[in-house]
């Protein structure tokens, strides 16, 4: 029998997903009967691996909650609670599947229809719009990947802001990103502890990885072990066989060693806007 957590007026109903640092539950507000998502993060676990994880996520969500306008492509944040052992993020319940699952099943499950060009382009435009909304508020997601994008029918929402960074100067020391993000979804300079990383580039690189994934079902750099992943990242070894030329142009424009040589998010979005629909 599944353990039920009681968090103020909320209680958990069932597990929706589990990640490296947290478990997300479907929850219920006992007063209003509203369905919510409750993300529970263990404080002791985070203290030893990523001590800024909880404060990063809370800061990003508080900025979003105070903003007069809210992106329809970002999961809404309602409340934060904590006790001695755990932190609880109370968020919008968005009933869907991860982009990772949607793409995988469209390519590998014969009972599922393949994604159309219009659906792919629509997902990518929404993801890009959400990123640009965040960047205008000096929020950088820091861990954009298909697992952190939820799809319901034709709508997407970004979630999981535990690796997010709020920075008005839009720069961050690479050593601060050691426990952030997912290998292969960050540019090569993140591997160099002495480097400063441009945060716009960090999310744009991850966005290009998502573009690649949506059309191929594979991650461009990630392999079966970290050594090979880091080697591919340092050498910029990417395979484009079978990918449309317009996808390759976007990826080649972003996947460059020198940050100054990369195309920026605004240009990437203009290119994606021209994808076939």
Automatic annotation (TrEMBL):
One of its GO terms (biological process) is autophagosome assembly. Belongs to the protein kinase superfamily. GO terms for cellular component: autophagosome; cytosol; membrane; phagophore assembly site. The keyword Nucleotide-binding applies. The keyword Ligase does not apply. GO terms for molecular function: ATP binding; protein serine/threonine kinase activity. It holds the Pfam family Pkinase. It is an enzyme of class 2 (transferase). Keywords: ATP-binding, Kinase, Nucleotide-binding, Serine/threonine-protein kinase, Transferase. This is non-specific serine/threonine protein kinase.
